[in-house]
Amino acid sequence: MLNFLPMLDNNKNKILSILEAVCDPEIPVLSILDMGIVRDVKFDNALLADGGIEVSITPTYTGCPAMDMIAVNIKLALLENGFKNVRINLVLSPAWTTDWMSEDGKIKLKKYGIAAPDKKNTIPKDGVECPQCNSNNTRLISEFGSTACKALYQCVACEEPFDYFKCH
Amino acid sequence: MNNYLKDYLLYLADTSLILSQRNSEWCGHGPILEQDIAITNISLDLLGQSRNFYQYAATLIGDNATEDTLAYLRTEREFKNCLIAEQPKGDWAQTILRQFFLSAYQYLVYEKLQAYNNEQLAAIAAKALKEVTYHLRWSSEWVIRLGDGTEESRQRMLQATNELWRYTGEFFITVDYEKEMNIDVADLKIEWMKTVRAIFEEATLPIPDNTFMQTGGKKGIHTENLGFILAEMQYLQRTFPGANW
Ligand SMILES: [Zn+2]
Question: pLDDT, tens digit, for every residue of B6-52?
């Protein structure tokens, strides 16, 4: 998914593992790679000597207060690992979609207690699988949950309320 | 061109910012916790959208303009928001109906803009459209629930309609900066009415007759309400210029 400009493989792996360690501050089990927030990494061979690197990220929601923090955290992580001249580029187009969330990320999300986005339906009225007991006997409580990206559900079987990551 | 684009961006930004500010007055006061969270989430989306427009406008204006100077240091006459955004939050019915009218409008505007021949503007609009789609759904459901609810909720929706309908006219009056950008908003009226009619019908609410429409917001002529919002919103930066934390 990431469009890495020509760069040496060992650099690519190094950058990926650094970015993998930067997490979404609101869902700390997901890395920014799982979320699909990182859209591009430009590591210019000509700038190799001074470590110039540009990371393009895209916001999940325009008002997401986590974006500024994510940008700072990426910058810090790269600087700490010896990169210099780190630039963070914010891109809006194409607009972020939950389709970019990794399969691995969806599994982590469920383990964390948040139902993963359903590709077919933005906010189903019912039938979202309960991340606690796996029952599909659940109902929508509110289209807006604890953050803009989530909706609130309740499981009828085990009665636990839970967040659902809205399809976007 | 840049001058008109700048004005148009400010108009879009101001409408989102002022509505965001109004909706945020519900924070901690919503009728139930879930809806308190919903309206403040919508507020946050709108704030994010306005930031994108302000940031873009600031690059065109130059002269050390930033999103903050545009939000905090312009005067009432310089704000171009639609009048409906600055009206008091009123009761829940009024907040819901205002959101519905504006979301239905923003949906149509952003839908057009995402294909506009300006990459940056199109990208912001495409992003905003996804969020507005949720706002429109949520507010539509509430219009139906309240309109076709109890006698009390219905009365309040009728009252809100009576209060707000007059501010929907300016949505469809193309002003100079829109004209210069080849954006004809008069065209949007048919689609907007279609949405409103469908939801009002389900809510068993009557569409008001053609009445007097108050206009001027898009040109900077506001109701007395905007001054009070700005006084509150801009207080800190006006009192302690450049304050930071
Ligand atoms: Zn359950």
Answer: 999 999 999 999 999 999 999 999 998 889 999 999 999 999 999 99
How many structural domains is chain B composed of? 1
CB contact under 8 A, B130 and A168: yes
What is this structure's pTM?
Answer: 0.88
CB-closest option in B38, B44, B130 to A95: B130
Segments of chain A scoring below 50 in pLDDT: 1, 5
Taking CB atoms and an 8 Å cutoff, what residues of chain B touch A144?
Answer: 34, 37-38, 41-42, 134, 138
In the beta sheet, which residues pair with residue B156? none
Q: Is 90 exceeded by the pLDDT of residue B131? A: yes
Residues within 5 Å of ion ligand 1, judged at the Cβ atom: A 130, 132-133, 135, 155, 157-158
How many whole angstroms separate alpha carbon A27 and alpha carbon A13? 24
Which residue, A26, A20, A9, is CA-closest to A77? A20
Q: List the one residue out of A81, A77, A164 whose CA is nearest residue A122.
A: A164
- What is the fold of A103-165? N-terminal domain of TfIIb (2.20.25)
Which superfamily, per CATH, for A4-96?
A: Fe-S cluster assembly (FSCA) (3.30.300.130)
pLDDT in tens, B179-212: 999 999 999 999 999 999 999 999 999 999 878 9
Rounded to a whole number, what is the largest CA-CA distance in chain A? 59
